Amino acid sequence: MKDVARAAGVSPMTVSRVVSGAPGVTPETAARVGQAVRKLGYQRNDNARSLRQKNLGTSTIGLVVDDLANPFYALMARSVEDEAHRRGHVVLVGSTNDEPQREREVIAAFTARQVDGLILVPTSGSHGFLKRQMAGGTQVVCVDRPARGLAVDTVTVDNRAAAGRAVTHLLGHGHTRIAYLGDRYDIWTQAERHAGYRDALAAHGIPEDPALVRHELRSQPQARAALAALRTLPDPPTAVFTSNDVITLGVLDALGDPAPLGLVGFDDLPLAERLTPPLTVVSQDPVALGGTAANLLFSRIAGDRSAPRSVVLLTRFVIRGSGEHRTAAGPARG
Amino acid sequence: MKDVARAAGVSPMTVSRVVSGAPGVTPETAARVGQAVRKLGYQRNDNARSLRQKNLGTSTIGLVVDDLANPFYALMARSVEDEAHRRGHVVLVGSTNDEPQREREVIAAFTARQVDGLILVPTSGSHGFLKRQMAGGTQVVCVDRPARGLAVDTVTVDNRAAAGRAVTHLLGHGHTRIAYLGDRYDIWTQAERHAGYRDALAAHGIPEDPALVRHELRSQPQARAALAALRTLPDPPTAVFTSNDVITLGVLDALGDPAPLGLVGFDDLPLAERLTPPLTVVSQDPVALGGTAANLLFSRIAGDRSAPRSVVLLTRFVIRGSGEHRTAAGPARG
Can you give the pLDDT at residue B333? Predict the structure, then answer.
């Protein structure tokens, strides 16, 4: 603290106010303190890194995902591991199950074990607590979702536009009763995809029917049950947009007879092209997401202190058949 | 070293000879030294553990798998994480890509970061190097495969019997030209499954035809190419046994026209029951494997020093259609 105050030419009290985010500090002073913190923190971190490499052998980075059992995150993890391995780093991987408390525990365990950086799929909690780790020299990159209250490099896909395109595709095939089945709404990607669903309906002048919208589907059985319930409505949906792979799998379980619905899913699945009908999907590339995040992190670890970047990777819309499918009872093509 | 010598009533030189595995030490002396090492090592480890919990926060265990991108290991990892989380531990996960060198790096990085124990899917390399970590108090449990040269708790499935049953099933449906498509033969599970394939053929008096056997298939494209090549043989197979999920996916890519072959795969797949025909598989439960291994590890961490256990979990044979399928050109039912 004293070193920082001296380097910035301010009092230790001022440094304390800046670091704790207290009001009444001019932007110029805050910037001067920030520069000093970064400069000294960086030196300290450099020293710490050479010391730790001596003590701990191989350098590590940490990867914190929602759920390793989800193939999307498993592929992302492997991609990060391959990038790290090429650079002589080992990756520590952990899951949060989207629980902010578990996220904090995993991150605390990783930083106590002196990772050089973290790649984080943030939970819906707030992430201000990471500022302390970052001030201590741990680099952070977010992937799949941005963190709240934290300005760091972030790699996402075009969730909203891609979901809008998927629903527009169903509308173009004559569907007007299109259900939305989604995971927890407080997950950023889910809110974005739901916004895309609404955009598409609005562009076609169709009001959103809340009876056709289900959030909070966390598992395959929950998604299956949700679709089964929707199909008992007096005016049931003729098509479904599913907002992640787990929900798509659950909906596939509940299709079959009577005549299937139109279906477009967010996320591709192994064997999707071998189903009857083959599955139309929004395909995002977890390997590219993981690789891009790893590259950003390693450039930060190497000393890149430029302004945080937001990288948006484009999804692909893969038309295979299920989104072009209409029931016998479905509406005529619009 | 001196403490051990004193406790064992021998000279420091003798301790050194025992620890380094030098010849000319009587078994009785080696046992006495071993007891002293374990006793003192255990105390030291207890002290170290309370110290590390103070410094590092949450306790950790390490999980080292072949490939996180393989859904089988991803599900296993999540299962280990859930068991660990219930006990207040965080899991560090890493992949070896089945390379002994990468395995050593990952294990070294984990032990340097003071994991209380390791759950290991061992590569085909030797694992004597782990004895040093174990003498230092790190508990080790192997899962999926046994480690060579290391007597520790091990959780596997009935690979050989299950593969034998799968191939017997194909034989029972009239197939006599049955191909075996496998991963690297030096992976223990692959050698076991190939042995089961041979057992079944031998029990039916059918000699193994080397032209129908392919090892070393590490990826989906390699498996696809291998099957395509087999189908150009003058006397092609009428059925295929695939020895893991990745190979099954590759073979499914190469099926289609002309008329498909009989197929039984080792490992179940999401959507397997929705294929045409639905996929017949040997299903092993990665969640049970991971959970059992975690339970064994935590009982070791809690102080259980009983003799190493070998736990074999039974697979399920799931008959869905693809293994009962015969080509028009296939042999009559035997």
Answer: 39
